[in-house]
Design brief:
This protein has 100 residues and is mainly alpha-helical. It has one domain (3-96). It is 69% helix and 0% strand. The chain has six helices and no strands. The N and C termini lie close together (8 Å).
């Protein structure tokens, strides 16, 4: 799956099955289901998951909790627009994913 396929799937409404949990979480959030996104990411314990977790809490408006997760992800607290950070995370995760 490519980034373009992933983005197109947001319109189709069918969660891609062959993407990582952090990408599944971001997909759910982009479709408006923050709770589902958070449930997915809470079960993960990686730096990528911590970054997504930080983004979710930033989107929620919980800056202190977001800062905690940015520290866990070993990333600075983001001050870019939420849409910019979402896209940056997606692109980074796809760039790091092994090719199928």
């Amino acid at each position: 799956m490519t980034v373009d396929d992933y983005l197109a799937s947001l319109k189709g409404g069918l969660l891609p099955s062959r993407v990582s949990a952090p990408l599944q979480s971001l997909w759910q959030e982009a479709r408006g289901d923050w709770d589902a996104a958070h449930k997915i990411i809470q079960a993960q314990d990686t730096r990528d998951a911590a970054w997504v977790h930080a983004y979710l809490h930033r989107k929620e408006g919980d800056a202190a909790n977001a800062a905690y997760w940015y520290r866990r992800a070993k990333r600075p607290v983001c001050d870019e627009a939420l849409e910019v950070e979402w896209r940056d995370i997606v692109n980074t995760l796809f760039d790091a994913a092994p090719e199928a």
